[in-house]
Hints:
mainly beta; six-stranded antiparallel beta barrel
Amino acid sequence: MTESFARYAITVPGREGPHSPATVVVVHRTEARGPGRLPVYEDDTGRFRVQIIGGVARPLADTDCHGQRCLQAFQMSSPDARGHSSPAL
C-alpha cells in the first residue's frame, strides 16, 4: 500500500540513558525511490530519510534514529499558499 500524502510528522524517540525528549520531524515526499520502489520522504535538511508504509516510517540506512527501525508517521495536509496547514482528514 503506497501513501498518497505529501507530508508526514514523524515522532523520533530521544536517546536512551539521558531520557531525552522525543523530537517531531516533518518530512515531505521526494521524487526518489527506495527499496521496493516506494517513495522516499525527507526533512528539509535531506539528512532524515524514511519510507512510509501504512502509517509506519521506516528509516533508510543513512538515517540515525537512535536504533529505532519503526516510527509512527502522522499524515499532514500540504500547506496552503500562505504557508498554513490544516489537519489531514
